[in-house]
Amino acid sequence: AWAWFDGIKFIGKAIKTLWQRKLTVEVLDGVAIGAALLQKDYPTAGAVMYLLGIGDILEEWTHRKSVLNLAQSMSLNVDKVWVLVDDIEVSKPVNEVVAGDQIIIRQGEVIPLDGVVIDGVVLV
C-alpha cells in the first residue's frame, strides 16, 4: 500500500510534465515506477523510489557544498601582508596592521586593506 501511496507522487509529476508537453526525467521516473506498480512488482518500485530519494538528498548536499565552496573561494583569505619598516619588508598579520603602516602589494595580489597609493600605479 505504501508503494502506491509514494508512487502516486512520482506518477503525478510525470503526468503534469507530459501535460506541459515536456519530456523530462520525471516522466521516465513515473513510467518506471508506474510500470512496476501495475505489474505488482512492489520491491522494484520501492527500490526505484528509494534510489530517487537518495539522489535528491545527494543533489541537495552537493548544491549546498558547492555554494559554500564558491563563497569561500570568493572571500578574502589574506592572513599576512608585507609591511615596509625602515626600508625593510616585514611579514605581518593583517589584524596587526595599523593606520600609517605602509603595506606592499605586488601585481596579481589581493588588496586586503584600504589605503592610499604612495608609490607606483594601481589598476584594479
UniProtKB/TrEMBL annotation:
Gene3D superfamilies: Calcium-transporting ATPase, cytoplasmic transduction domain A (2.70.150.10). InterPro entries: ATPase_P-typ_transduc_dom_A_sf, ATPase_P-type_domA, Cation_Transport_ATPase_IB. GO terms for molecular function: cadmium ion transmembrane transporter activity. One of its GO terms (cellular component) is membrane. Residues 76-121 form the P-type ATPase A domain. Pfam families: E1-E2_ATPase. Signal peptide: none annotated. PANTHER family: CADMIUM/ZINC-TRANSPORTING ATPASE HMA2-RELATED (PTHR48085), CADMIUM_ZINC-TRANSPORTING ATPASE HMA4-RELATED (PTHR48085:SF5). Belongs to the cation transport ATPase (P-type) (TC 3.A.3) family. Type IB subfamily. This is Heavy metal translocating P-type ATPase.
